[in-house]
Amino acid sequence: xxxxxxxxxxxxxxxxxxxxxxxxxxxxxxxxxxxxxxxxxxxxxxxxxxxxxxxxxxxxxxxxxxxxxxxxxxxxxxxxxxxxxxxxxxxxxxxxxxxxxxxxxxxxxxxxxxxxxxxxxxxxxxxxxxxxxxxxxxxxxxxxxxxxxxxxxxxxxxxxxxxxxxxxxxxxxxxxxxxxxxxxxxxxxxxxxxxxxxxxxxxxxxxxxxxxxxxxxxxxxxxxxxxxxxxxxxxxxxxxxxxxxxxxxxxxxxxxxxxxxxxxxxxxxxxxxxxxxxxxxxxxxxxxxxxxxxxxxxxxxxxxxxxxxxxxxxxxxxxxxxxxxxxxxxxxxxxxxxxxxxxxxxxxxxxxxxxxxxx
Length: 359
Known about the structure:
The protein is of the alpha+beta class. The chain has helices at 42-50, 92-102, 107-120, 136-148, 166-183, 194-200, 218-223, 228-233; strands at residues 4-13, 16-26, 31-35, 57-62, 65-66, 77-80, 154-158, 186-191, 203-208, 211-216, 238-245, 248-251, 254-257, 263-269, 274-278, 285-292, 297-303, 308-313, 324-329, 332-336, 339-344.
């Protein structure tokens, strides 16, 4: 059993508060992702857990024991950096064996552990290879293996796929998730990639300016964002600023029922939850661009006040440049003063698409 508890941790760099009174509990075997833009404090927080930065205040406990006073090499953590941080003058085997040698383990036990972890990350037989002979993806596997061979209680991943191309990123994150689940190792993972967070994590922590905006399962963070920042940062989102009068939200010439009190409000609608209908004349906006992705289409349109929004459609061939359309949200969320005040979910979870005109 390996649990991580971060309680009221802060980090002050000169006059800049990088992490502000942050708290999080990570359960045994759980993979939690810290997600946020650059400067949100996520990497600083991870480095504090690993012992590479000293918190200005708070507590970090692993299995109930305080580790703040321990240097990185004495903490039961293993960290994988974005830059790999491998020793280029050593071959793969010696990179992995270095930490085990410091623990004065018998030579045969070191060999067994290194070979086992190389097999685990799909690099069996690569021990004699030089680090510079490996591809970027193979180097990242070695970096992961170097952390895993020490059998840490907590695995820390600091944007390990950021320097890799898209296809390799997707393959490696699936492999890392499989390894993490197979070993049941408690993991804290930092990324600014929404797709990585949504596809890998048991829970996502959305950070902003050193603080927590929302902590929940990936599906909940995506479908029920608590703040406009989370709504706009996770996935693609249409954000409309308008006014509510007598239960109706209005912006430009578009209106929709919204049962909240009168006043200004922010309405957020996902592209896949926005149904478009071709209007014979008038409408809420005009089609600006249509992109066909094969599996679906994306219609970029402009409201009459110039506001640009997007809608996902199953038949992009139904829409043409300059066409008038009407908008019909099937799911939406409303915010006031950065607080969620109303949410409507599609009753059947599906977004109905317009019928073909030539059918």
